[in-house]
Design a protein that fits this description.
Catalyzes the rearrangement of 1-deoxy-D-xylulose 5-phosphate (DXP) to produce the thiazole phosphate moiety of thiamine. Sulfur is provided by the thiocarboxylate moiety of the carrier protein ThiS. In vitro, sulfur can be provided by H(2)S. One of its GO terms (cellular component) is cytoplasm. Homotetramer. Forms heterodimers with either ThiH or ThiS. By secondary structure, the protein is α/β, with parallel strands linked by helices. It has one domain: Aldolase class I (TIM Barrel). 43% of the residues lie in helices and 15% in strands. The protein has nine helices and ten strands. It binds 1-deoxy-D-xylulose-5-phosphate (DXP).
Length: 254
Amino acid sequence: MQFYNQNLHSRLLLGTAGYPSPDILIQAIHASEAEIITVSLRREGVGGSEFRQLIAKTKKRFLPNTAGCHTVKEAVTTAQMAREVFETNWIKLEIIGHADTLQPDPFATVEAARILSKEGFEVFPYTTEDLIVGEKLLEAGCQLLMPWGAPIGSGQGLRNIEGLKTMRQYFKNIPLIIDAGIGAPSQAIQAMEIGFDAILLNTAIAKSKNPILMADAFNKAILAGRIAYKAGLMEKRNMAYASTPAYGLADLSL
Ligand SMILES: CC(=O)[C@@H](O)[C@H](O)COP(=O)(O)O
């Protein structure tokens, strides 16, 4: 799998917020086997460079994010600062449009994606399953899309699975990463089974009773879902279809 020409093995992208302790976060990162770790620039502000250095020791790849931004200007400035601090052109573009749902603002996201792409950023845009917004983000320079499963931190899983399936069909050759709302490994499997390329998640691991174990569970679930997708799921039927053939049944009419 490749994102912006980078070869990757793990299909799990991990968030770093809300863990019980830095030590548990680091152990969870290792247990997840994630190669991409998303970090907020605001977090860098709170913990100084210590937090960045802690994550840097894991030798994972940083994906700075613009979490908490509400306008194009805020997001672009945050991305520019993140590029300096984390020394990467990668940016997870998150512009929130609604305080309760934390739904992305599609208009601002497209505008910011265009500006950032022109400045040489490789943008990972947090979006919805809307196809037209997806098209506009690609036109703006994004090479992948990150639709939400459900509102951030809600743990509701794939709230609009039919819309996400349509999106998968429509953007056949574009990497699609489910970002946000995944609450359980079973929901991650479901996303992978329908052909999504990867999953970005944070809360389900950070807020579980044992983040290290849960990171391991998600790692294995995402792998299982991907294998199932490649194996090809059986088609659903409305009626029963005997799995054992009738051939060879005892003939009791004699
Ligand atoms: C960490 C991060 O980038 C979040 O904004 C992301 O969207 C994850 O969402 P969940 O916490 O719902 O997994």
